[in-house]
């Protein structure tokens, strides 16, 4: 599965949900507007949606009517056409780097494959991001609560560039560590990355 589309507002504009959440990412819908919404998955989300996925429907805008979805269509691609095996191997390699070689992956029961080499530049940036996440973690543990906004981060542009590309899972994992160190509360972290 690589995405889905929903149709809302056909029955009544008052039944349109304010948002739909998929994979911890909220998609805001327009109030009072009957419309189709196309929601493509990222590569990581497509890998997670191998057999199923969960859609959470938010409350209506007025809060009194029950939210309704009039139609739902799921898009899929053949695994070969999608490159599922190669992309899954890349994710497993990334997890192997994060967990350490010869660790057992949670839920898989397989030993991690030997690590493939990455470019020196990618490894250097990844190590730099990991160091940065440790610095933020130490800073947070020394102070009661660091109240930062994403716009205040000096590395904001770098993080945005990394998250725009889904071809660098090692860098994305390291960038997520930085965001988790800066925004340790789950709710705040997911607000920032969505």
Itemize the secondary structure elements and their pairings.
Elements: E1 3-8, E2 19-22, E3 25-28, E4 35-40, H1 43-48, E5 55-57, E6 71-75, H2 79-82, H3 84-99, H4 120-142, H5 156-164, H6 169-182, H7 186-193
Antiparallel strand pairs: 1-4, 1-6, 2-3, 2-5
Helix pairs in contact: 4-6
* Strand count: 6
Compressed to H and E, one letter per element, the order equals EEEEHEEHHHHHH
The class by helix and strand makeup works out as: alpha+beta
The total tally of domains equals 3
Strand content: 5-15%
Unreliable residue stretches = 101-117
> Number of DSSP helices?
7
- Apparent shape: flat
Proportion of residues in helical segments: 40-55%
User: What is Rg?
Assistant: 20 Å
Mean pLDDT: 75
- Main sheet properties: 3 strands, antiparallel
Strand order of the largest sheet: 4-1-6
């Amino acid at each position: 599965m690589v995405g889905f589309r929903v149709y809302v507002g056909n029955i009544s504009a008052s039944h349109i949900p304010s948002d739909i959440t998929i994979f911890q990412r909220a998609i805001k819908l327009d109030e009072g507007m009957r419309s189709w919404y196309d929601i493509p998955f990222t590569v990581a989300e497509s890998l997670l949606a191998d057999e199923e996925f969960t859609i959470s429907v938010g409350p209506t805008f007025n809060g009194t009517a029950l939210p309704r979805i009039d139609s739902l269509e799921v898009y899929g691609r053949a695994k070969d056409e999608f490159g599922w095996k190669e992309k899954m191997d890349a994710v497993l390699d990334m997890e192997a780097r994060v967990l350490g070689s010869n660790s057992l992956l949670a839920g898989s029961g397989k030993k991690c494959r030997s690590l493939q080499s990455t470019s020196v530049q990618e490894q250097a940036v990844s190590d730099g991001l990991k160091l940065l996440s440790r610095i933020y973690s130490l800073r947070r543990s020394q102070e009661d609560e660091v109240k930062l906004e994403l716009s205040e981060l000096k590395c904001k542009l770098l993080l945005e560039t990394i998250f725009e590309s889904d071809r660098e899972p090692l860098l994305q994992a390291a960038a997520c560590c930085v965001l988790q160190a800066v925004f340790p509360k789950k709710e705040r972290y997911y607000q920032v990355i969505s």
